[in-house]
Design brief:
Helices cover 32% and strands 26% of the residues. By secondary structure, the protein is of the alpha/beta class. The strands form four sheets. Strands 5-4-13-14-15-12-16-18 form an eight-stranded mixed β-sheet.
């Protein structure tokens, strides 16, 4: 096959390009920002925030870029283990350690820069700085991309393609382009969450041999969860994030940020911000809603076109599913192309497999999000039942090592959420429901 075009150069776009490099003679990535970037970039407004690379995403990066994790660590990223140097808290109580569950921490620009450097090793991948303006359709398929090197439409050119991958993110204009060409756009489902989070960097004493990552979840009676996370990152720094919903969203104010850290019941955050110096200011970001687009339900769809990552589904960021979902979508793309499909036909097999990934990730977060006091959703009985079970699992994971391990498998997207509903797990959870015993 001759040429594939990827629209967007973030993690999802990079992984798509790496997959495509094994199936096409040439892969062109269209991205409006300068790449690689060693600082937050305009095209990723949340790039200054903390990002979590779950184990499923790390596995995909190691698969497509062999030695990726080791390369990150050798360049300054930090490895923590839930058995020793990473701690998870619920309402101020530390969960029982589970050795073997590792977390690699870095800033988003550091991660992206290294990913792009690895992609550059593929000799048939080229980057074009600019903006995609639309698609060219020909005989029921997409045959090219209208591309402009600047912010104005003047001077646009058409890049011909055998396959186009939409990796433009949650604000993708693909639906608009499809409708403009007479195709039905995918239905867009939104779940209102109105999450806000604020991130700041602090110095870190390299001689500190204590915790390297701390995750603290508070579930007050108001039903408005609060989360605080901190992790050691490259350059002997801490990255610290605090979150809140609706009227409790954090603001871009240093004292508000520090006070939220002091109030966290785990104690780690107040200690860190009291001992270390803040580097720069506080960066905030607002996530109004979760989104997913139902491509597989369309009765008509052009050939030569697929979408992945946030262009298909964008989740509540506190669950850290974004980059890992994109990695799993890229794996679905590779499986689809290995089947030798006709690119003139709709990629139905691909979208059906991606739907399975999306459904599992959505299931992890949607039940809780639908029950937020300010949510516009109408919770179903299934949502309420799932929330009761998840709350019980969270409580049991404080003291039961096996329940915590299974919970981490789901949280890291190594296992389907339904595994927490298996009889053996529910029995262990039930035994812990009204007990307060030593961890086992």
């Amino acid at each position: 096959m001759r040429r594939a075009i990827v629209l967007g150069g973030s993690i999802g776009g990079v992984l798509a390009a790496r997959v495509l490099s094994g199936h096409f003679d040439e892969v062109t990535v269209v991205e409006r920002d300068d790449l690689p970037a060693d600082r937050p970039r305009p095209g990723v407004p949340q790039s200054a925030q903390m990002h979590i690379l779950l184990d499923a995403g790390r596995t995909q990066l190691d698969r497509w870029f062999p030695g990726f994790s080791d390369g990150m660590l050798s360049r300054g990223a930090v490895l923590a283990d839930v058995g020793s140097t990473a701690a998870f808290y619920l309402n101020g109580h530390r969960k029982v350690p589970v050795p073997g569950n590792e977390v690699i921490s870095s800033t988003r620009p550091f991660l992206e820069s290294y990913v792009h450097s690895r992609l550059a090793e593929c000799g048939n991948v080229v980057f074009r700085k600019g903006r995609a303006r639309g698609l060219r359709f020909d005989s029921g398929r997409v045959s090219g991309v209208l591309f402009s090197g600047g912010d104005d439409a003047d001077g646009s050119e058409t890049l011909s393609s055998d396959l186009v991958v939409d990796a433009m993110g949650r604000s993708s204009r693909l639906g608009e382009w499809l409708a403009g060409a007479g195709w039905q756009p995918p239905a867009l489902e939104r779940l209102h969450v109105d999450l806000g989070y604020a991130t700041a960097l602090f110095t870190r004493d390299p001689a500190d041999s204590g915790m390297l990552a701390v995750h603290s979840l508070s579930l007050p009676d108001s039903g408005m969860p609060r989360l605080a996370s901190m992790a050691a990152v490259e350059g002997n720094r801490w990255i610290v994030v605090v979150t809140g919903y609706a009227r409790e969203r954090p603001v871009r104010d240093t004292e508000d940020f520090l006070e939220r850290c002091r109030q966290d019941p785990s104690g780690h955050f107040g200690k860190a911000v009291g001992l270390e110096r803040m580097l720069g200011g506080v960066a905030t970001y607002r996530h109004p809603d979760n989104r997913r687009r139902a491509f597989s339900r369309l009765s008509r769809f052009p050939g030569g076109l697929v979408a992945l990552g946030d262009s298909v589904a964008s989740f509540n960021p506190i669950y850290g599913q974004g980059m890992s979902s994109a990695g799993l979508h890229a794996a679905c793309l590779d499986e689809y192309l290995r089947g030798g499909p006709s690119l003139s036909e709709p990629a139905r097999d691909y979208f059906e497999n991606v739907d399975k990934v999306v459904a599992a990730a959505w299931q992890t977060s949607a039940a809780s999000d639908a029950l937020l006091p300010h949510s516009s959703a109408t919770p179903t009985r299934q949502d309420r039942a799932a929330k009761v079970v998840m709350d019980a699992v969270l409580r049991a994971s404080l003291v039961d090592r096996e329940v915590h391990r299974r919970f981490l498998d789901v949280a890291n997207m190594r296992a389907h959420p339904n595994t927490l509903l298996r009889p053996g797990t529910l029995l262990r959870v039930a035994r812990r429901w009204r007990t307060d015993v030593s961890p086992v």
